[in-house]
Amino acid sequence: MRETPLSNCERNFINRAIAEDTRLDGRQLLEARPVEIHFGANWGCCHVALGETKAIAQVSCDIQQPKASRPNEGMLHINVEFNPIAAPHFEAGRQSELAMQVNRQLEKCFKDSRCVDLESLCIVADEKVWNLRVDVNILNHDGNLVDCASIAILAALTHFHRPDVTTTGDSITIHSFAEKDPLPLTLHHYPVCVSFIVFESGQIVMDPTYMEERVGASQLTLGLNSYRELCSLQLCYLGKTSVTADVVPSISPHAANYANKLVTQIRKAAQQDVEAKYNKEDRDVCRLKECITFGKLTAMTKPKLSIKLAHWVAGKSSPKSDMETSDFQDEDDNIKTLGHGSAELITNMSKSVGEGGPNTWQASEESSDDEIEDIEILQETKLEKKVLDDIDLGGDSEEEDTVTVSKNDIM
Amino acid sequence: MQNQLETTEEEECVLRPMNCELNQLSRPDGSAMFMQGDTVVVAGVYGPIEAKLQKMMHDRATVETMFSPAKGPPCVDDRAKETVIRETCEAVLLTALHPGMAISINVQELQDSGGLLACAINAACLALIISSISMKFTVAAVSCMIDRESGKLIVDPDSTQIQQARVTFTYVFEGIKKDLVSCHTTGRFSENELMESLEKCRAASQNIFDFYRNIVEQYAIKL
To answer: Which InterPro entries does the record cross-reference, listed alphabetically (chain A) (predicted)?
Structure first.
């Protein structure tokens, strides 16, 4: 689907509102949306919500041969996927211009600023190094994807632990998490991206929403770390604008303060979760559950369910066992006949499914009605005692269950 | 023999806790974050939307599905999951109501600890319910496995149990007559095992349908 065009009304409205220092969501011009970070049960899995913009990051690692130019350094790959779940105009499996731009911006911020100590990821120089891969999937696009993705990447990298490795001579042993405690990554500094939009009127807005991004005249993204150092800078003219010359100096102190605050929040969240994981009791607790705001009308939880299900007896059962089953269900006389009927159904027990032999499914379709009747009685008697009582078995023959409902059936 | 008889009587099955939030995402027409135990997926549905010209069908809506894994580019296995989800959703939706349009169903894996396909289908069904696209019936997917050593059938296994699996089954049932809609299996198994697991999952699927009903009731009453 193509992106819905923005009407002049909307454009003018937002421009006028911004000129009067008003934002549609009630924020100040230089105010960011709240950030929520949740970690999953795996190392390096994190869900970030920047207002309504949501992303999930997952770090994974494997061992590869290093690049010839850098034989004693590990590798870091950053990949941001713009799936159609985030917005209907994103196309699956195709890198759009926006996706490439965001990918490059994040690479500049994380790879080119050399925040991850890649040398510590070397196992055997020139032969084997760790290859880190960060996958970011955007879940909901409400503007400022770069910031949201950068927070997700930083949080995931801070949280990630790789398996320990020992080298003895030529052999390399990768220890599982049960054998040896995993090791965290070494980060030299913690960069995040902070984005701004400059409007035609010259007003600067921080952390733009989707609407503001579309109306804005130029876009500015700063990559900053907690030491107030600039790691990357991207200035992108979306349309004509009169004032841009003094934009960078005017907002950079504010951006640096915000970046510092953000990094503190990310590191605190990651540290809390890592500590909780080190305490063995709640090692596998999945904190993604906390993404769900319970108490909402559309949210629901159901505790672990223990249910009693009847064991389905196939025709395998010998007449002897049927006699015994009828002992404790003696109110049903039909039970005795089912032994013969169901024994008839499975004629070639020697052959299991998929191992050749004629298809017995069709055969049972053509077989006498009372055979099917028998199976149903069996099921009914077994199902009677269950918690779940409203399963309609009547009228269904067995073959029907296994037919896949295709679209042609309805047309 | 005696031992076998005891198991034929009644067997206890445990379904992992289910958590769900509907319309968590602001962009999709309907979305659901669904958790079964530690398996977490998010599904988002857009539709009916404009179809691409090459995919447009004159008599019904095209169903586009996208399953994206948490790590790495989608592999063959993920494409297979995508196909199962698409074919299940095609059976569920009344596509003839929206000719020339598209319905886009997107599922994102957040965390996999067993029964990912079942969880994805359940999330997609919840997202379809909340997006108020006309459906023929609701569907519920239940996964189960057979243990390699004991041969025991486990309904809704978690990631540690599934490592011991000889066979895994995922069944999708429709909500009216509990007929089978689709089925995905791995490993070798006998006909008996298939039928036994089918019946068990069919019975367990009722819990998921109850869950759907409860969550819809919760907000439908207030409206």
So the answer is: ExoRNase_PH_dom1, ExoRNase_PH_dom2, ExoRNase_PH_dom2_sf, Exosome_comp_Rrp42_subfam, PNPase/RNase_PH_dom_sf, Ribosomal_Su5_D2-typ_SF, Rrp45
B192, A316: Cβ pair inside 8 Å? Answer: yes
pLDDT in tens, A176-193: 888 888 999 999 999 999
Residue A47, C-beta contacts closer than 8 angstroms, at least 6 positions apart: A37, A38, A39, A40, A54, A55, A56, A152, A288, A291, B110
CB within 8 Å of chain A, chain B residues 15-44: 15-28, 31, 33, 35, 38, 40, 42-44
The CATH-assigned architecture of domain A24-188+243-291 is: 2-Layer Sandwich (3.30)
Å between B222 CA and nearest CA of chain A: 9
Q: A348-366, pLDDT tens digit by residue?
A: 555 544 455 555 555 444 4
At A314, the pLDDT band (50, 70, 90 cuts) reads: low
Q: Give CA–CA dist A71/A274, Å, rounded.
A: 31
Residue A171 predicted with pLDDT over 90: no
Name the pairing type of β-strands A75-81 and A128-140.
parallel
Nearest residue of B to residue A384, measured between CA atoms: B10
Give alpha helix (H) positions in chain B: 2-9, 76-92, 116-130, 159-162, 191-222
Strands (E), A179-271: 183-184, 191-198, 204-206, 218-225, 230-237
State the CATH architecture for B18-222. 2-Layer Sandwich (3.30)
Q: Which residues of A touch B192 (CB under 8 A)?
A: 314-316, 346
- In this prediction, residues A195-220 reach a mean pLDDT of 90
Looking at residue A378, its pLDDT comes to 44
User: Alpha-carbon distance A195 to A106, whole Å?
Assistant: 12
In tens, the pLDDT along A92-109 reads: 877 888 899 999 999 999
As to burial, measured by CB atoms within 10 angstroms (0-12 exposed, 13-18 middle, 19+ buried), residue A2 is: exposed
Write out the two tokens for A365.
């379709």
Q: Is A44 left (phi over 0), alpha (psi -120 to 50) or beta?
A: left
DSSP conformational letter for A69: T
List chain B domain ranges: 18-222
Instruction: Identify all chain A residues contacting B71, using CB atoms and an 8 Å cutoff.
Output: 58, 60, 133, 135
Q: What is the ipTM of this complex?
A: 0.90
Q: What is the pLDDT of residue A395?
A: 45
Residue A151 has pLDDT above 70, yes or no: yes
Residue ranges of chain A assigned to CATH 3.30.230.70: 24-188+243-291
The total of other beta-carbon atoms located within 10 Å of residue B8's CB is: 16
